[in-house]
Design a protein that fits this description.
single chain; alpha+beta; Elongation Factor Tu (Ef-tu), domain 3; 59% helix
């Protein structure tokens, strides 16, 4: 499970660590309207990623549903979620440990629910146990001795509604982001997110700031916004998307809880905030629960009954005959090579599994194929049970069949190593 723990989940944690220090960088931007910060942050991020985006965009084509997902994420997470949360804090005079922070903790619930509904992610009993422990621990990390401040004045109800909306916007966006990433480059989707959010926030900049011109930036603010784009903004989101592409929504949203944990630790060292013993204990529990959730990221829980179909015999030509399978629906997985198993006539065999196009053969449409290890199949069955396991690598183009065969041989050895562990 080494690749599973330190691949996608590890990148999610790195992004969360960057987001935790974001507040320190933004402190000098308090004089700017929130919508101005959203606009400039995304504008600078879009400009920085543009050269890489256009290089990746040449071979990319999004379906209508994928366009809908990325527009949803750009609007809800990029613009409205930030504005709603900022508005909620303003209504309670930015009081920490208030109902705003309590309701924001609902974000993982929305992410898990949306992932189950739209990506058909399964919620095992082990996952529910450790995710529940992580959420409870995150609550006690955030709120000293578990006490929430509900006495925040007449604006509390309004603040609660805005905080609830922000939690929904950010939580649901996790699942829709993953949906748009599954079959596309993380760099391409990150660029789209920043371009679309910049365009969506532009009219709101004039409406909400109450001025017909762009808010002026002094040298310090300009520098801060550039630093944000290069660290906790665009770069952090790019890292996050590289991880989310390989991490189930339900796992990613729990690992994101490292963000408030590190933010609390930063308060200790920079602002001399004293923590209660309960918060230290909760922090340790949260880290352990997040680790246990990360271990569940392997897709071994995914079991499919797949029909065997006729192939073109290309695998046999290069020494690796495969079972060609009709792609089950839904099949919400990233294109790539996986280690897994196939069950034939009640017997389970290790298999290297290919999902996606095959560039070396000029095949652009998706295919699902399994090379069964240590077993020669003379008469292919009509149906098999497929267990999709650990992600090994992405789809690549090769100059010829010989280079492809050499890579498949490496994939087979990686499959053995992954399944033996």
């Amino acid at each position: 499970m080494k690749r599973t723990l330190f691949g996608g989940p590890g990148l999610i944690v790195i992004a969360a660590l960057l987001w935790a220090v974001d507040g320190i960088i933004r402190r000098s931007l308090f004089s700017l309207p929130p919508i101005a910060i959203v606009f400039y942050e995304h504008l600078f991020g879009a400009l920085l990623i543009a050269p890489f985006f256009f290089r990746k965009a040449k071979g990319e084509r999004l379906r209508k549903s994928e366009w809908g997902a990325i527009v949803w994420v750009s609007l809800l997470s990029g613009v409205l979620g930030t504005l709603w949360f900022t508005t909620a804090l303003a209504k309670v005079n930015f009081i920490s440990f208030s109902v705003v922070f309590l309701l924001q903790k609902l974000q993982p619930i929305f992410a898990i629910g949306t992932g189950k509904l739209f990506l058909k992610e399964k919620l095992s009993s082990r996952y529910l146990l450790w995710a529940g422990v992580a959420l409870i621990a995150a609550y006690f990390v955030t709120f000293k001795n578990g006490i929430v401040n509900f006495e925040t004045g007449a604006g509390t109800i309004g603040a609660a509604l805005f905080a609830f909306g922000a939690a929904f916007a950010w939580g649901s966006s996790t699942a829709f982001s993953r949906y748009s990433l599954l079959k596309h480059s993380g760099t391409y989707i990150t660029g789209l997110r920043f371009f679309i959010t910049t365009l969506l926030s532009l009219p709101l900049l004039f409406i909400l700031s109450g001025t017909p011109s762009f808010p002026a930036l002094d040298a310090s603010q300009l520098g801060r916004l550039v630093v944000i784009a290069l660290s906790t903004g665009m770069v952090a989101l790019w890292i996050y998307y590289q991880g989310l592409k390989r991490t189930q929504t339900k796992v990613a949203t729990i690992l994101e809880l490292v963000f408030p944990l590190v933010a609390v630790i930063i308060d200790i060292f920079l602002y001399k905030t004293l923590l209660a013993p309960s918060q230290y204990i909760a922090a340790a529990v949260l880290l352990f629960a997040a680790y246990r959730v990360a271990k569940l990221n392997g897709a071994a829980e995914y079991r499919y009954v797949a029909t065997v179909i006729a192939g073109r015999g290309k695998g046999k030509e290069i020494g690796f005959p495969t079972l060609n399978l009709k792609i089950p629906r839904p099949f919400s997985h990233q294109y790539g090579i996986y280690a897994g198993w196939v069950e034939i006539d009640g017997k389970k065999h290790m298999a290297a599994i290919h999902y996606g196009p095959i560039p070396v053969f000029g095949q652009k449409e998706s295919s699902l194929e399994a090379y069964v290890l240590d077993t020669e199949i003379h008469s292919p069955p009509r149906e098999i049970t497929l267990f999709l396991g650990q992600y090994l690598r992405d789809i690549r183009s090769f100059p010829d069949n010989r280079a492809l065969g050499a890579q498949i041989a490496k994939d087979v050895e990686e499959t053995r190593a992954a399944l033996a562990g």
